[in-house]
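Q: I'm writing up a methods section and want to include an example of the input and output format. Could you take the sequence below and give the corresponding predicted C-alpha cells, formatted cleanly so I can copy it straight into the document?
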Amino acid sequence: MMKTQVSMSLKMIAKVFLTLFIICLTGCNESEYAKLVKTELDKNNINETLIFDFQLGESKKEFHDKCWLLNNKGIIMQGPKNDFVQYELPIQENDTTTHPITLLFYGIFDEKKTMTGMDMQFFYKGWSLWNKSLQAEQLVPVVKDSLKSWFPGNDFITVNTKKSGEIIHVKVDGTRRILIEPLKGNREVDVRIDDLRYVLDKL
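A: Here is the clean output for your methods example:
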C-alpha cells in the first residue's frame, strides 16, 4: 500500500514538474531534460545521498549534529558566511587541477526543518581578479568532474533557460537533482542539490 502511494505521488510530481519545465525551457535541451526527469522519476529510485553521509530527508538537528562531529574531527570548520560550513578539498593525484579549492555548504530546509536540498559554493582558495586561471569560468568543469565522482550515475546535460538564456548544467539520478547554476561573478561556482519529491520550482 505504501509503495503504491509513493509511486502515485512520484508520478503526479513528475507530471506537474514536466509541465512547469515545458513552460520555462526551450529548444532540444527542453526535450532532453524533460525526458530525463520523467525517466528517472518513473524508476521510483529514492536517491537521498549527499556528501559526508548527509542525507536528504534528515532533520535540521541531524544535519547540525553531523556538522559538529565533522568539526570535532577537524574535517570541516565554520565558514566565512552565515551558517555555511567550510571544507578544503584535498588534491588527488588524478585531479584536473593542482590549485586548492574551498567548498562552502549548508542544508536547505523546509518549514518542518526537513532537509530538502543542499547549497554549495566552490572557489579557488588563491583566487584573485587578475589571475585568469583561477576564475569561476575555469572552475566549472573541475566542479562538474568532482560532482560526477562524488555522485556516480547519469552525466550532466546542458539546459538553456528560456527566460534569461542562461546555461545551467543539470544531473538527475532518481529523485536527486544537481544544478550547476549560471555564474553570478568571477569567483564562485554555485551548486544546488534538490530532492524532486519536495521541489516543484522552475529553473
